[in-house]
Amino acid sequence: MKPVMYIVLILIGGVFSYNSYRLILQYVSLRHEYAALLQQEESLKQSQTQLADDLSYYSDNDNLIKAFRSQFDYKKEGEKVIKIK
């Protein structure tokens, strides 16, 4: 009777060990995913801040015209533009 009890206890211990191992692997995987999501959140916050700054900057017509002229090499009539590379 005792050898059967030992075998049952060993089997139960093995099942608990296996389940514990799976839970630990799942925990580690979730921690890595959480860290990646935190990094993504920080990146998105920086992008949001940059976009808000750009929106504020380009809300001023003078800044918008200056950026347009710079990007598309636009000049006013009679104006001379010198490009420096």
Please give the count of helices.
Answer: 2
Would you count the extended β strands for me?
Answer: 0
Radius of gyration, in Å, reads 32 Å
What gap, in angstroms, lies between the N and C termini?
92 Å
Measured as a percent range, the helix fraction is over 70%
Per the principal axes of the C-alpha atoms, what is the gross shape? rod-shaped
Contiguous runs where pLDDT drops below 50 for at least 5 residues: none
How would you describe the oligomerization state of the chains in this entry?
A: single chain
Query: What is the H/E string?
Result: HH
Measured by DSSP, the beta-strand proportion falls in: under 5%
Task: Domain count, please report it.
Answer: 1
- Mean pLDDT figure: 91
How is the biggest beta sheet arranged? none
Structural class: mainly alpha
Structure, described:
This protein has 85 residues and is mostly helical. The protein has one domain (2-71). Helices cover 81% and strands 0% of the residues. It has two helices and no strands. It has helices spanning 2-58, 61-72. The longest helix has 57 residues, at 2-58. The relative contact order is 0.04. The model has no long low-confidence stretch (mean pLDDT 91).
Tags for this entry?
85 residues
Write a concise synopsis of the structure shown.
The protein is mainly alpha-helical and 85 residues long. It has helices at 2-58, 61-72.
